[in-house]
Design goal:
By secondary structure, the chain is of the alpha/beta class. The protein has a single domain, classed as Rossmann fold. The chain is 51% helix and 15% strand. The chain contains nine helices and eight strands. A five-stranded parallel β-sheet has the order 2-6-1-7-8, sandwiched between helices. A three-stranded antiparallel β-sheet has the order 3-4-5, covered by helices on one side. A hairpin with a 5-residue loop joins strand 3 and strand 4. Helix 7 crosses helix 8. The protein is globular and about 60 Å long. The chain starts with 5 loop residues before the first strand and ends with a helix. The mean pLDDT is 90.
Length: 237
């Protein structure tokens, strides 16, 4: 696997990773790997199976019947199929967000999806977005970023996103989203495996006062500068 061909973008929920990663991948002509959505798809499967997502043994047993497929969608997006059923539209609810945090804390779940993610990354030219891409899944990636923002700002962004997606313009409880955001932060940071943290060599970007375009430009500038330096060194050999 070429180190130059892997860009990892990690960070907590609601920080804008998906939108930024999608734009970075498009600009570099790389594939976009939304690993957070993979865990959300597992959470949907577990819930639909009637399994308690706090019971590790029950979740692991259920995994034997899981067939998770990633398929191309419109505009470069990815569709997520669970046992042939498209669950993409169900992945972004606050409830699924919390459930995915719980199931992702189980080592067998992370091992199963981590293997899938590494296989996808073997082809190179991938922007991998998640929570442990730079620390666990692709530790040798040359380009590592960690996005962050104040919880209140992240909750506000998520509330606006959910309201825009609502067919009937239903009012979103922003206070509840903030509570769930902070709860998920605690769950992700305190779990014993693959906890949420920046990789040692990651560039940390506080997006609180930045536009999405500014974040994308900063990442692209950093990646392209690093690649130019590598090419210049190779040319001198």
């Amino acid at each position: 696997m070429s180190e130059l061909a892997i860009v990892t973008i990690d960070g907590p929920s609601g920080v804008g990773k998906s939108s930024v990663s999608r734009q970075v991948a498009a600009a570099l002509d790389y594939s976009y790997l939304d690993t957070g959505a993979m865990y959300r798809a597992v959470a949907v499967f577990v819930g639909d199976s009637g399994v308690d997502d706090r019971n590790e043994q029950a979740v692991v047993r259920a995994l034997a019947a899981l067939r998770l497929t990633l398929a191309p969608g419109k505009g470069g997006d990815t569709r997520f199929l669970v046992n042939g059923l498209d669950v993409t539209c169900r992945l972004r609810s606050p409830e699924i967000s919390l459930a995915s945090s719980r199931v992702s804390a189980f080592a067998p779940v992370r091992q199963k999806l981590g293997l899938m993610q590494r296989r996808i990354g073997e082809a190179g030219r991938v922007v991998a977005e998640g929570r442990d891409m730079g620390t666990v899944v692709f530790p040798d990636a040359a380009h590592k970023f960690f996005l962050d923002a104040h919880p209140e700002i992240r909750a506000r962004r998520r509330a606006l996103q959910l309201q825009a997606q609502s067919a009937n313009g239903a009012v979103v409880d922003e206070a509840e989203i903030l509570r769930q955001t902070m709860l998920r932060d605690r769950q992700d940071s305190e779990r014993p495996i693959a906890s949420l943290r920046p990789a040692d060599t990651a560039m940390i970007i506080d997006t609180s006062a930045m536009t999405q375009e500014q974040v994308v430009d900063l990442i692209l500038d950093r990646v392209r500068m690093a690649e130019r330096l590598i090419r210049d060194k190779q040319a001198l050999k």
